[in-house]
Amino acid sequence: QLQLQESGPGLVKFSETLSLTCTVSGGSISDTSSNYYWVWIRQPPGKGLEWIGSIHYTGTTFYNPSLESRVIISVDTSKNQFSLTVRSVTDTDTALYYCARGQANWFDPWGQGILVTVSS
Amino acid sequence: DIQMTQSPSTLSASVGDRVTITCRASQSIADWVAWYQQKPGKAPKLLIYKASTLQSGVPPSFSGSGSGTEFTLTISSLQPDDFASYFCQQYTRYPLTFGGGTKVEI
Question: Are B65 and B98 in contact (CB under 8 A)?
């Protein structure tokens, strides 16, 4: 059974860089049997869901234009991980960050999520 | 961007009720819609994709319908475990976008 687990610091200072990693277990991130993408999604406290971006194991990426100038998503197939970097964080980046597998751009399964708070 | 407008934002219901949640897209998205259930403190769970295809393991009390710009998620008989928030999502084009959510409460 495929499982995803987010990891990284829960507190990031204003204007600094947020870095998270998603570790995939129970399957290969470079599975070629289906055209999977690996995805980051976030949810500010008490609010809705925002797609951040997606990456294929080959390195092809798609980003939300609202975040594209500050975001990088990368993949490390040797570690079965993919990562998220968000530069110059502000209060609006405080959120629960989820990683998930994308199949035809719906998402299943999801990681349990990690709360990242931006502090001043 | 394609806007997904969900209604209602909150829905009060009782066990055994039939519940319908609507999602309207700002432009036609064929049937490229997914629905998710989220319980407090938990990650969203995929219920339905391609507007009406039930994900494996999801009870048949859940169903989805619609195409173009209007979509519905129906729970035929609400169970205690179904009290949660529900989100729609379009995946016809980037950026992928979600509806604002519907909280189903007692």
Answer: no
Q: What are phi and psi of A92, to 5 degrees?
A: -70, -10
- The predicted structure's pLDDT at residue A69: 96
Q: What is the chain B residue with the closest CA to A65?
A: B95
Q: Which of B55, B95, B99 sits opposite A65 (nearest CB)?
A: B95
**Confidence label for A33 from pLDDT (cuts 50, 70 and 90):** confident
* pLDDT confidence tier of residue B48, bands split at 50, 70 and 90: very high
By three-state DSSP, how is residue B40 classified? coil
Q: Which of A49, A98, A105 minimises the CB distance to B91?
A: A105
Nearest CA in chain B to A43: B43
Of A48, A105, A107, the CB nearest to B101: A48
Task: Determine the residue among B96, B98, B102 to mutate to test chain A binding: the one whose Cβ has the most chain A Cβ atoms within 10 Å.
Answer: B96
**Cα distance between residue B25 and residue A9, in whole Å:** 36
Compute the average pLDDT of residues A49-68.
96
Which positions in chain B touch A73 (Cβ < 8 Å)? none
Q: Token digits for A41?
A: 């999604």
- Tell me the C-alpha to C-alpha distance, in Å, between residue A91 and each of A11, A64, A118, B30, B69: 11, 18, 6, 36, 34
d(CA A12, CA A87): 11
